[in-house]
Amino acid sequence: MTYSILFDSVNVNTQDTNATITVGENVQSGWNAHSKNNFGNGMLFGWNYTIHSRNYVMDPDTTDTIISDNEFDATNQGQVG
């Protein structure tokens, strides 16, 4: 049984790392996401109020996030218009 889903519009407020918005028939292969974060005060969401805030991050790494991503992801995809 085939179903049809119709959208009038797609609204996006924020996209994060390794995220996608796709419509229609698609193939997505070989996705990778690499990152490093240092938060001195964590992450604040919503309504926040801080006074005289001091944040220290001790990060003794010589080199951050060494990435050797030599993989080959073969894919069989094409676009039909």
The unreliable regions are: none
Q: Count of helices?
A: 0
* Basic shape: flat
Mean pLDDT: 77
Percent in strands: under 5%
How would a textbook summarize the main sheet?
none
Q: Provide the structure class.
A: little secondary structure
Distance between the termini: 24 Å
- Rg for CA atoms: 21 Å
Number of beta-strand segments = 0
Helix content: under 10%
Overview of the structural elements:
It comes from Terrihalobacillus insolitus. This is Spore germination protein GerPA/GerPF. With 81 residues, the protein is largely without helices or strands. 0% of the residues lie in helices and 0% in strands. The mean pLDDT is 77.
Task: Outline the fold blueprint.
Elements: no helix or strand
What are the defining features of this structure?
Spore germination protein GerPA/GerPF, little secondary structure, 0% helix, single chain, 81 residues
Summarize the structure.
It comes from Terrihalobacillus insolitus. With 81 residues, the chain is largely without helices or strands. It contains no helices and no strands.
